[in-house]
Give the backbone structure.
Amino acid sequence: MTQVLHIVGGGMAGSEAAWQAAEMGVDVVLHEMRPKVETFAHQTGDLGEMVCSNSFRSDDDEQNAVGLLHWEMRAANGLIMTTADTHRLPAGGALAVDREPFAETVTARLKAHPRVTVSYEEVTALPEDGNWIFATGPLTSPDLGQAIQAETGAEALAFFDAIAPIIYAESIDMSKAWMQSRYDKGETEEERTAYLNCPMDKDQYEAFIDALLAADKTEFHEGETAGYFDGCLPIEVMAERGRETLRHGPMKPVGLTNPHQPDVKAHAVVQLRRDNALGTLFNIVGFQTKMKYGAQTQVLRMIPGLENASFARLGGIHRNTFLNSPTLLDDQMRLKSRPNVRFAGQITGVEGYVESAAMGLLAGRMAAAEILGINLPQVPQDSAMGALIHHITGGAEAKTFQPMNVNFGLFRPVDGLKGGRRGRKDRYKAYTDRAKSAWSDWLEHSALDAA
Ligand SMILES: Cc1cc2nc3c(=O)[nH]c(=O)nc-3n(C[C@H](O)[C@H](O)[C@H](O)COP(=O)(O)OP(=O)(O)OC[C@H]3O[C@@H](n4cnc5c(N)ncnc54)[C@H](O)[C@@H]3O)c2cc1C
């Protein structure tokens, strides 16, 4: 009997997954709730609708990780990238598209595919059997959200992200910062030195609070509620509640001794915590923020030790539905508790159109391979695709898991290259060369295994 792949959600990830599986020879039913059921952000009933900006970000495949992801998706005949190329608008080094014809073409190409059927309906339960990919995105319908929560547990599904900025470790000035856990707590040396600390004196703290209060902030989208506020106040809101609030919260200076100035008690301390197993990324603890991106970099670089910080991602707070993928999903993006169900796209804890489509591409291929009885080789960790899937399904810290953009901090370091800003160009070129070669090999071997 022919097995059908059901894909729920026809956004960036679901559309790409459907295309990839169909191209591999699997019959696909794509279930999309729009236009019957609307979200607060989508405007049409089209598949592949871009909900906000019309940009797929940088198209530089040598010096930029998202540009590299474009390259890898083009090499895999990705629907989203090839359609974006058709509707490209002039935007310097970025890949911007004419959004309406883009989504219309995604819809038309899927509907014209002999192996794809589009079914306009809301799916509200996780099925017991059959082959399924759920790619319902940040605005997963409430009934389905409840069903996922019932299966995974309340702690494992979030309805908002509260993203603290993430910084490349190599850009932190360790002549000012130091590694220490509060009160040296922990059983092992690694635990006792788990945090990276940046000290502030009184003047620096006061100037920092002034800058926070004056910074440009992003407004909420219509339909986003602010009900999350109690659990994760943005730092600028804490500062508005009182100039000392942060010093009694995430910036409290207690239990720490600065080895660079052991006799000076810091007035406040900003703490950073490892964000990935590789130790290349650090997030600023408790620093979720709604400051605009330009303001964020300016304000955060006032922190001693972070003057030259490079940001792997900036902070934000949004309506977002996402799983704690490092604990829930296996390396094939299957739900461990229900392996006939895969997840793909933003709901797996990646962030952005491109990353979501990329995870759809992998999920579509993996599901199709399973149906066809093909053993796909492991996605190479040195490719952008591999770095991202490895991060969400295991490399990220599960306890503090928040959605992630693709960035070079997710890549294994290339040996023998200069660190710091000066070596950046050569390093990024080495990452992208290595990734392209690994990804091309993978595509070739996947095709051979399928033959
Ligand atoms: C307000 C807002 C603004 C954003 N702006 C940007 C931006 O500017 N740039 C960027 O890169 N990213 C942005 N994002 C993130 C963006 O949504 C994702 O990057 C991307 O669209 C995620 O792709 P996806 O396929 O996972 O989800 P989506 O593209 O949202 O697709 C999910 C699909 O599932 C459908 N669906 C949901 N529940 C069900 C159900 N129960 N049954 C059937 N169908 C269902 C939805 O209708 C939707 O079509 C924004 C998100 C939001 C909420």
